[in-house]
């Protein structure tokens, strides 16, 4: 009888441990993004996000071997607001490099209606205005990932091409 119990318990224990390890390993990974093509918008939670546009802008404080990419994303957060981190920029082709926003070393005038991240305090439509310092050889297309911890693991990737 003890041997019979081991035959049942050991495989069940192994399956339980394996499931737990796989579910934990996947918990920090975002779901596949909802890809929003240029000129389009999407629902993200209760918010309407997009479209997104990008262009290279001059900035006297940018390094000589780099360019500044400015990305603007329209956000209509709805009554409950939308909180999100500053979006990450990804190169969709070639080396597939990634860049965080540059919020300190560039010449920018702060505008409360053009923040660099979403705020749940804002319930009226606004525009995210985010700048990235990228190497001169970065040309796009780029993906701009909008991620809200409240909506995790769901996320939105805007495709932009300056």
Strand order of the largest sheet: 1-9-8-5-6
Poorly predicted residue ranges: 13-26
- The helix content, as a percent range, equals 10-25%
The Cα radius of gyration reads: 21 Å
The structural class is alpha+beta
In terms of DSSP E residues, the strand content is 25-35%
Shape summary: globular
Order of helices and strands: HEEEEEEEEE
3D structure, described in words:
The protein is an alpha+beta fold and 162 residues long. The chain starts with a helix and ends with a strand. The chain has one helix at residues 2-26; strands at residues 34-36, 42-44, 47-57, 66-76, 88-91, 98-99, 126-135, 142-147, 155-160. Keywords: Signal. Residues 1-20 form the signal peptide.
Secondary structure elements and pairings:
Blueprint: H1 2-26, E1 34-36, E2 42-44, E3 47-57, E4 66-76, E5 88-91, E6 98-99, E7 126-135, E8 142-147, E9 155-160
Parallel strand pairs: 1-9
Antiparallel strand pairs: 2-3, 3-4, 4-7, 5-6, 5-8, 8-9
Summarize the structure.
Residues 1-20 form the signal peptide. This protein is α+β, with helices and mostly antiparallel strands.
Structural descriptors:
162 residues, alpha+beta, 15% helix, globular, signal
């Amino acid at each position: 009888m003890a041997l019979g119990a081991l035959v049942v318990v050991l495989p069940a224990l192994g399956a339980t441990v394996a499931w737990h390890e796989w579910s934990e390993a996947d918990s920090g990974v975002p779901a596949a993004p909802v890809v929003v093509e240029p000129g389009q918008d999407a629902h993200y939670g209760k918010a309407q996000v997009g479209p997104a546009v990008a262009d290279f802008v001059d900035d006297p404080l940018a390094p000589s071997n780099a360019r500044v990419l400015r990305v603007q994303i329209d956000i209509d957060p709805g009554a409950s607001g939308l909180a999100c981190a500053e979006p990450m920029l990804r190169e969709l082709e070639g080396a597939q490099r990634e860049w965080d926003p540059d919020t300190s070393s560039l010449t920018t005038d702060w505008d409360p209606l053009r923040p660099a991240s979403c705020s749940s305090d804002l319930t009226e439509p606004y525009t995210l205005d985010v700048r990235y310092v990228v190497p001169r050889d970065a040309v796009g297309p780029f993906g701009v990932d909008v991620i809200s911890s409240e909506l995790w693991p769901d996320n939105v990737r805007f495709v932009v091409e300056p």
